[in-house]
Amino acid sequence: MQKIAIAGYGTVGGGVAEILRRNAAKIAESAGEPVELKYILVRRDFPGDPFEKEMVRDFSVIESDPEVTILVETIGGCGAALEYCTRALKAGKSVVTANKQLVAEHGAALMELAREYGAGFLFEASVAGGIPVLHPLSRCLGANVLEEVSGILNGTTNYILTQMLENGESYADALSNAQRLGYAEADPTADVEGIDAARKSCILSGLAFGKNVSPEDIHVEGISKVDALDAAFAESGGMKIKLLGRTLLQNGKRFCFVSPHFIKASALLAGVNGVFNAVCVRASEVGEVLFAGPGAGRYPTASAVIGDIIDIVKNPGRVQPAGWDACNEAPASFSQFHARFYVRVPECNKAALEQKLGKI
Ligand code: HSE
């Protein structure tokens, strides 16, 4: 029997608790032993909640309980979340987190700490919600030299783009529905300005190329400036607009960035709509592989968290991946990336534009 604790009882933490109870028999079968939820760390009371008896307010109760072997962190951010993950690892407990900001900014250090204390540190849920992608990257595709890992990494913006551009909903309504459905970050600016996708791209870059990439070192453009004119232009060229996070090698340089892209309407990624995410991997031996599925939401994200719990129960001390160098090594500047760019300006003064952009 493994006993675990959850820190943070929001959308994802609540989903983890629910599934652990609802699917207890299946999870025990997958893990090879039962997994019992002993504590949930909360900041306020939840009177009448089905998990009221598991709730505690003081992290030291969890930290000092030798029966607890795994901490699930679903608080978000890098304040209390970083403190509790660090304390748990130092107490020899494994950590499973869905927190992409934490992993993007402190993942390499936390992985080192986990190794030092013989604990596990897994974060499958931090990228692309319910889609298994980090585990396949670092294990199943381990025979390949990776060339590119790109995709639709933010469910909220993909949902907004789909609702606005395909279903005629207003930006404000689409965003408020994404919030109601539990897709958006606490501050949805992180979604619409591409910051969330940037964190996920940095994690993918670290895994793919073994170098730590800091979100502040990469070019990030979200969807807040995309409008119906751009969609009409895309349509006229048989294309769709998607926000992509990409990390890749081009002419021997390593790139990592987030930007809206035009995609041919016939391409696989163009058909990935709503809250769905998709990650496309280009690798030396296998060629192209596409992972797709729900990228946000209570149960899909909780499903990935519990997958990691099962992995740690079966492989104590599992850290993902081996060889993600803790030293920051900024990728090449976006200005060196070769591609065709689309620029929309309010007035077309070709001479003035050519002064800024070079010959058009
Ligand atoms: N806000 C994130 C998204 C949640 O919309 O994709 C999942 O990481």
Q: What's the SSE pattern? A: EHHEEHEHEHEHEHHHHEEHEEEEHEH
Small-molecule binders here are: L-homoserine
Q: Determine the number of helices (DSSP H or I, runs of at least 4 residues).
A: 13
* Main sheet attributes: strand count, strand direction, barrel closure: 6 strands, parallel
What's the gyration radius in Å?
21 Å
What fraction strand?
Answer: 15-25%
- Give the rounded overall mean pLDDT: 94
Number of separate strands: 14
Label the overall shape.
globular
Q: Termini, distance in Å?
A: 67 Å
Structural class designation: alpha/beta
Binned, the helix content reads: 25-40%
Low-confidence segments, given as residue ranges, are none
Strand order of the largest sheet: 3-2-1-4-5-6
Structure description:
By secondary structure, this protein is of the alpha/beta class. Helix content is 38%, strand content 23%. The protein has helices spanning 11-22, 24-31, 59-63, 80-90, 100-116, 134-140, 155-166, 171-180, 189-192, 195-209, 228-236, 298-314, 350-357; strands spanning 2-7, 35-41, 55-56, 68-73, 94-97, 121-122, 146-152, 211-212, 219-220, 239-250, 253-264, 276-283, 287-294, 325-328. Strands 3-2-1-4-5-6 form a 6-stranded parallel beta sheet, sandwiched between helices. Strand 12 (276-283) and strand 13 form a beta hairpin. Helix 4 runs parallel beside helix 5 and helix 7 (155-166) crosses helix 8 (171-180). It starts with a strand and ends with a helix. The structure holds L-homoserine. The site of L-homoserine (HSE) has 11 residues, from helix 7.
